[in-house]
Amino acid sequence: MIKIATWNVNSIKARLPRVLEWLSEFKPDVVLLQETKTIDEGFPVLEIGDAGYNIEVSGQKTYNGVAILSKFPIEVELTALPGDEADEQARYIEALVTGDKGAVVRVGSIYLPNGNPTRDEDGKDSEKFLYKLRWMDRLLAHVQDLLKTEDVFVLGGDYNICPTDDDVYNAAAFADDALCRPESRGRFRQLMHLGLTDALRAFNTAPHLYSYWDYQRGAWPKDNGLLIDHLLLSPQAADRLQGSGIDKTPRGKEKASDHTPVWCELED
Q1: Which residue among the candidates 111, 159, 210, 212 is catalytic per the annotation?
Q2: Residues β-bridged to residue 263
Q3: Of 35, 120, 158, 261, which is the most exposed, with the fewest CB atoms less than 10 Å away?
């Protein structure tokens, strides 16, 4: 089995003790990290390398940042999402990992733009929201290209999308939020309609399963959460899917990220 997880760590430096603890206890083979919030040179390569992982990063000072950790060799294919050479935000990294039995899996770590606030003062769509939609259009085009390869691929990350009202604790309150706006959800559905499989939902169909809880207003103890972290699989990867879930353990720790890992297992 190859265990793949995605986790928005909300600063790899601030969360390093939690990350190292989780790597030791959960023992994932491949980890897709988001919101690392550091330039490449600032990533804690030595500490995570000592934990047994190869590391590839696409970083940025203070904001954004994505990374791939793997117990297997990593061959980087992309350090940015195609489609806009002027986009300097570090939100995408894609690589091939080769397991012990020779199985090759293409993985992408995604930190999709949040898009809030969605409205300007005049009530029109904000530039942040429009950037999110443009980014999703680029992702759609890239996934279409990836599907033509017939590769086994897993695109995991913080998509900043609650796909349905069952994925948010208070749907009415989030109706005009970028995570739930019809335009955001519509593009996410377009992704799924290309033939992708949501790894979590393949095995966990109950409503109100969450991967994110705000630091404010007692969201964690009240379970006022959002499901915005997803692992989307190509048909070839879905054929190998053996299990999936959400590991809520890290969110309950001291100095935790506001997200918690989502994971899946593929037959290798």
Answers
A1: 111
A2: 5, 245
A3: 120
H or E stretch at 236: helix 235-238
210 belongs to the catalytic site: no
Instruction: Read off the pLDDT of residues 193-229 as tens digits, 9 standing for 90 and up.
Output: 999 999 999 999 999 999 999 999 899 999 999 999 9
pLDDT at 255: 95
What's the Cα-to-Cα distance from 118 to each of 5, 113, 184, rounded to whole Å? 30, 12, 11
Predicted local confidence at residue 229, as pLDDT: 98
Mean pLDDT of the chain: 97
Q: What is the pLDDT of residue 78?
A: 98
- What is the DSSP pairing of strand 225-226 with strand 241-246? unpaired
Domain of 231, CATH number, reads: 3.60.10.10
| Helix (H) or strand (E) run with residue 24 in it | helix 16-26
Q: Is 40 a residue of the active site?
A: no
- Domain extent, residue 118, equals 2-266
Exactly one of 158, 177, 229, 258 is catalytic; name it.
158
**Domain count across the chain:** 1
Query: Prior bond to 117 cis, omega within 30?
Result: yes
